[in-house]
Amino acid sequence: MDQTILLFEDEGYRSLLPLTYTRSAADIRCGIYTLRERLTRLYDHAPNALTRAYLADVYGSGRWPLQVLANNQPIVLVNSRLVDCACLAQVLDAPIGTIILSDDNNTARSGGTLVAARLSPSLASAVFAYLLEQNAQYAIEELVRFGNVIHQRPKMLNFPWDIIDYNAEMIGIDAELRDVSTMIPALQHPDAALWQMYAPERIYVDRRARIEGPVALDARDGVIVIGNARVEPFSLIQGTVAIHDGVLISGARVRGGTTIGPVCRIGGEIENSVVQGYSNKHHDGFFGHSYLGEWVNVGAMTTTSDLKNTYGTIKVTLDGYGQVDSGRLKLGCFLADHVKLGIGVHLNGGSVVATASNIFGTHFAPKTIPAFTWGGERFREFRIDRMIEVARKVMSRRNVTMTPAQEAILQHVFAVTSSDRGDQDEDIFG
After folding, report:
1. In this predicted model, what pLDDT tens digit does every residue of 290-314 receive, in sequence order?
2. Both 304 and 263 in a single domain?
3. Cα gap 8→330, rounded to integer Å
4. Is 34 inside a domain boundary?
């Protein structure tokens, strides 16, 4: 491709907090892939990225990525909150100066939302400073003076529950991008005779996967894609579902609309949920219409509600927005990266547990828990040195080493969320 794809974050990352405290919006999994992974598969080249400064060493291309301008190729800007990439066909081969704006996003201001643009390096450099500070509205004001505007309404992540809403559809779209060299139709797998399958023509399995019968794979309601994973006997998987490499399904019921990211352990029951990766929900308990980040651990019998007894819509408290009515009758919880929940914790629908909180010894957890919270009967600040020590141990169990740049992200998030916790020695919830 004789042009450079450059992901950027706009003001909308704030409405995805706390999920975006420790990662770019482009690295939230929705469907089989994250946006970054989806673009890499579509165009056979990993995109560059502009991110918040403290994320740049892990998720970006540096604080001021001048190298993306050095080859004098056209720059294709892509909003990191974009979900379905079909609209990009309108800019990839379009004249320089073509801009896609959307007016159908809850986080859009009067100028709309910048979705994508194909720019010359000189015009791209004119808006870099705005995009590095997530001030896309100023970038729009600059670009519309020189460009040809196309109005589109693509799927974008505006609030955390959009991840759940779009997941099943995106699994179906992403399944077309699967690696056909390793992903084969289920009936061609050597162990296929041991499985009970419904609509096997919609089931794709990595030839290296260990699926130990008896298991039931039901794709009548949607495609099932299983990577190099292990599925233990007496598991039930109902499409639409995506299961990544390194996953262990331990006699679980994995129901439709669910993505299990790489290197996870899943037991009990889970439906209409996304597990980002490297997380464990290994024991009995139910999670529905929920999102679990990376390095999350859920104790035995810990369960979330995803439906109110009144059948009313579920409200969620978001950083900087206060309580927001999701408009959804069914909505579970949102667990940010490095969250730990002990045994028997119950979560109400719409619960949000922010980054690195460790909750235990309580029957019903508070509905909204700040980042770096520790406790159960009393809730105090989780000391950053102790939290990082625990995280290193957890990551080493999956043969992953925390890098200095990853530690710096946690240190930054700890600092910027300190006011949410109040005095270090007092009970956070009074």
Report:
1. 999 999 999 999 999 999 999 999 9
2. yes
3. 31
4. yes
